[in-house]
Specification:
Nucleotidyltransferase, domain 5; 3 domains; 14 helices
């Protein structure tokens, strides 16, 4: 079979991902003629996706020039929404947060309640930029709970996003988004097999295997918060079952047993050495570690990353987690296992949403269609 000629989208990937830096190098890698490379590069320059700068003094003839991906050539709108709070941001085309704010949403807001506020919030952030980056090229949302067929609680926000900003919208579970963020720029960067566990009001996991997020057949992978644990005393869970990990060791369950007003206050008490707070968090860590141990035996990740509000009390939490993981998981699965805190904190979900969008809109086929 004959190989199709490299397109503008292929050349952008070579510059952005592979670091190919000159027109001559692009020609050597792709086999394209100089005029063909020039035409494709000109289209990418005009689209604001590449820049070209002098790369040293001329030794005769045309000065050498280097091509670089232009991360300032547009914006990506992102929102990461948890059960109790969320964030909005505008990112550049490298996935870096340019400006962000808290999402002004009531806890448990439905898509119909949340979406108009999200759209207005993005408009407000764009208006605050000193030098607005244009154009908006895509939007990404991390939303609570499992998803199916790209829908959030049965609703598709894409038409409303397209009507306001004229761009496609992409969705994922908010824990998957945080896992992608850590894999893109945080504690899991470069790791191939990762279990990211978010410990906040609820408990959930994002799984990366072979460098790719795994969502399961119906988008419900990672729901470790709804695995039953022993000794729960019949505690009811919001899912309708009893003694789920989230119902027994999630943030809401811990606050019901603590005088702290929120997880930040509980974490502060634990960091200060309050014996009741330390014991409560460590006990929760042990229950969480029991479930993580099962996941480690099943999946054999190289890295477990702990994120979410409860990691504000990281030392007693991870002590409980590690004790159970290393006690219950097999020696081959734990011999080189690392358990680490999130490196990005609240920004993980935003950066992951941006990565989710950029993987799609900067794919060669998508770039070619845009050009």
């Amino acid at each position: 079979m004959t190989r199709r000629p490299a397109t503008g989208g292929d050349l952008l990937r070579l510059v952005r991902v592979e670091g190919v830096g000159t027109r001559a190098e692009l020609g050597r890698v792709t086999g394209l003629s100089r005029p063909a490379v020039a035409a494709r590069v000109a289209a990418l320059l005009a689209a604001g996706l590449l820049t070209e700068r002098a790369d040293g003094p001329s030794t005769g003839g045309r000065p050498p020039a280097r091509l670089e991906f232009d991360a300032s050539g547009g914006t990506v709108l992102v929102a990461n929404l948890g059960h109790s709070r969320g964030q909005l941001a505008v990112c550049d085309l490298a996935g870096r947060v340019v400006i962000s704010s808290d999402a002004d949403l009531p806890p448990g807001a439905s898509p119909a309640e949340a979406l108009p506020r999200l759209l207005d919030g993005w408009d407000d952030l764009l208006a605050k930029l000193d030098a607005p980056l244009v154009p908006v090229r895509g939007a990404g949302l991390g939303v609570p709970d499992a998803m199916e067929a790209g829908r959030w609680a049965g609703s598709d926000p894409s038409p409303a996003v397209a009507a306001r900003f004229g761009v496609p919208a992409f969705l994922d579970n908010e824990v998957n988004a945080a896992a992608l963020g850590e894999h893109h720029a945080g504690a899991a960067r470069g790791a191939g097999d990762v279990l990211f566990v978010k410990l906040s009001t609820g408990i959930g996991a994002g799984l990366i295997m072979g460098g790719r997020i795994q969502r399961g057949a119906f988008g419900a992978a990672g729901e470790i918060g709804h695995i039953a644990v022993a000794g729960g005393g019949g505690t009811p869970c919001r899912c309708g079952a009893a003694d789920c990990l989230e119902a027994v060791a999630g943030g809401a369950a811990l606050l019901a047993r603590s005088p702290a007003a929120d997880l930040a206050a509980l974490s502060a008490l634990a960091r200060a050495g309050d014996p009741d707070a330390v014991a409560l968090v460590r006990e929760a860590g042990g229950r969480i570690g029991t479930v993580i141990a099962g996941a480690v035996n099943l999946l054999n990740p190289e890295l477990v990353v702990l994120g979410g509000d409860l990691t504000g009390a990281y030392e007693p939490l991870v002590a409980g987690v590690r004790a159970e993981v290393y006690r219950r998981a097999t020696a081959p699965a734990t011999s080189r296992l690392r358990i680490e805190p999130s490196a990005l904190g609240d920004a993980a979900g935003l950066i992951g949403c941006a990565a989710m969008v950029l993987d799609r809109i900067l794919a060669p086929d998508a770039v070619d269609a845009a050009l």
